[in-house]
Amino acid sequence: MERGQMLEPKETAKALSATSSGYYSDHVDQNEQVRLLNRLANAEGSSQVKQDAVLANPPDWKTLEKAGVLPAGLSAVLSKINPLCLDEFAEMLAADPDLVRALVALVRLEGNLHTVQYVLTVLCEVVRDDSSKYEALCSAVADSEVFEAFRQLLEVANLDSYTADRAAFLLSGLMCRARSGTFSDSQVEYLVQGLLHGRAANKFLLSEGGRLDAFVNLLKIDGYRPMIWDCRGFPELVLRNLSLTLPASVLYKAMFCVWLLTFHDAFLPQLNEKGIVVAVCVVLKESRVEKVIRVGLGVLHNLLKCDASVETVIEQNVAQVLALLEFEKWRDGDMYDDIRLATSHLEQKIRQFNNFDRYCHELDKGQLTFSVLHSEKFWRENVMAFENDEFRAIKKLVKLLDTSTDKTTLAVACYDLGEFARLHPAGKKVCQQLKVKDRVMLMISDKDREVAGEALLCIQKLMLNNWQDVAELGK
Known about the structure:
By secondary structure, this protein is mainly α. Among the domains are: 233-353, Leucine-rich Repeat Variant (Alpha Horseshoe); 356-467, V-type ATPase, subunit H, C-terminal domain (Serine Threonine Protein Phosphatase 5, Tetratricopeptide repeat). 69% of the residues lie in helices and 0% in strands. The protein contains 30 helices and no strands. Helix 2 runs antiparallel to helix 3 (47-55), helix 19 packs parallel to helix 22 (334-353) and helix 26 (407-423) packs across helix 27 (427-433). The chain is elongated and about 100 Å long. The N and C termini lie far apart (93 Å). GO terms for molecular function: proton-transporting ATPase activity, rotational mechanism. It holds the Pfam family V-ATPase_H_C.
């Protein structure tokens, strides 16, 4: 067989079967070692143990060549692979598309798991070390059945997560960097659905970190982001991995996914609605893993483009968190500049959000929600602005008590009127003229506990000369 010619999958199976007495008998012990090492890696919770073991035991390339699985002459080339120095191997890949195609074909060897794992591990290490090395792989992708090779592998029942993680990482990386049109939209969507729901059918048995790794690759392509975000289960995948109880590597990948999503402005309100923004804030508060905080600062920078996200960030006291982060010891000196820049941007947003104009804008919409615009700090800083246009804003609040059917709006209006009465020199007198007390008294018996509670507090603020007396009454 000449170099460059490879057997078709069926022919490969026949060739391997013909040499089974020699090949498989020599590798029974090795396959048993693979199974034992899988258990060891899972027990120790580290794929590094498995990776070192895989790289320490290269396949018998000569036997594979004799079986017709490898083109003639390639066994000598592959025998030169040095796992400790993959630069030379990367150069070999760049110079020889036939070598790339031969390695992709080996991914189909379902009956020879060790060879598959070795090929995947070496290729993953090459591209992880330098993502530009994907170019060598991509140059040969168009002429190979790379999607089918990886699809078949990922659909193998009970496939170990070590193998599945690396297969998905390589396939998603190729989809991210291959020439436009190399992979169809349906192929990309198939991979996404497999990553999210394949486990239910005993396929795509990746670890959580492996799924996130693949999504990090895919989300680098702006055109893929809407399709991925709209898939059932994806936001939940990201949210559940933004957890401080998980390994830092998994948390980092989840945060990286969020960072890539924040470049798509349409997702920003949805990230807030689904609780992802709150989760990011919690991570910034509690984690001190440098790479996690670094990408978290990038997420924060992009979130500040969305008003709803800004309100959440402010409510979560992230400004105070940033002040504390500046006093941590970071290995990378640039971290301090990044933290100060994030602090500056957030403080600017806080000034914009704590202003009377924004309050009036929300009031004009007729629907209020508890936020920094309805807080003691806001009222202390802006109470005198409510004199504008003969207390126009206060009159609108009073009107909401009569017209709004939204319970949250009514509760917020009661809170704001109480703060106005308490903090403005003429607040109680203005409220008396507008008959605020009569309206609010009717709400004390409201079935909604929040409305009733805020109404009661408002009445107390209207009636007591010193708000501090309320605290005494509660004792």
